[in-house]
Amino acid sequence: MSDIPAFETTLERTNLWIQDVMTELRSEDPHDVYIALRGVFHALRDRLQTDEAVRSLLLRRPLALQCPAAGADLTAHATSPYAALA
User: Fold this and answer.
1) How many helices and strands in the chain, by DSSP H and E?
2) What is the pLDDT of residues 1-15, one digit of tens each?
């Protein structure tokens, strides 16, 4: 798929998370599960206090399930050479 190992790793991890949730929810649609996971993580990001445990959990998500900080300027983030480090 990709020549960049980090992308391969995040895609593998994302697919594992999606497969696990599909099994738990007895779903057959990976896209629906992906959207649901992103929604859950957005809600957690927006509503929970940012203590170390929550931050640690959210930072362990695969890159494909990450979401920018609430209120972030997405155009600046997407074009930044440091976006992958956020």
Assistant:
1) 4, 0
2) 678 888 888 889 889
